[in-house]
What does this fold into?
Amino acid sequence: MNEVIRERVGVHTQLCINTAIVYMHRFYVFHSFTQFHRHSMAAAALFLAAKVEEQPRKLEHVIKISHMCLHREQPTIDTKSEQYLELAQDLVFNENVLLQTLGFDVAIDHPHTNVVRCCELVNVYIHIIIKYAKETTNKAYFTSTLSSNMQKKQPTKFMYDVQSGGQN
It folds into this structure.
């Protein structure tokens, strides 16, 4: 579902969607699902999150996409219809209620960015470890092959000279 919303709304990063999710979690700590419908609040949270994360979307665009996601069988809503005006008023009202509930504290410090960075670092270190493991394995194989080949051969003249005390 996140992919559908991301594509249709035009949100380019997961950060905006994550921010909207945090807003909804914080909102429903204080309010009931029966008082504020989750679909209406989701649209308001996404609208606000897009502004906060500096990816603003037009009100018209968010309403059209929200309506399209909820009513797939119906045609696109007309921006001059009474239903559209009602949805626009509801979204703006819900955004204001959301802001008041959050105490206008809209800055979110997401742990996701740190987790992604750590995963990238771990991935880099894993590649380095694999590289050194392969090199070590190759060197061990080469060394064992070389030593087994040396055991099969006759001692070289140099080794014979050394063993005989330098006499030919």
Notes: Residues 112-152 form the longest helix (41 residues).
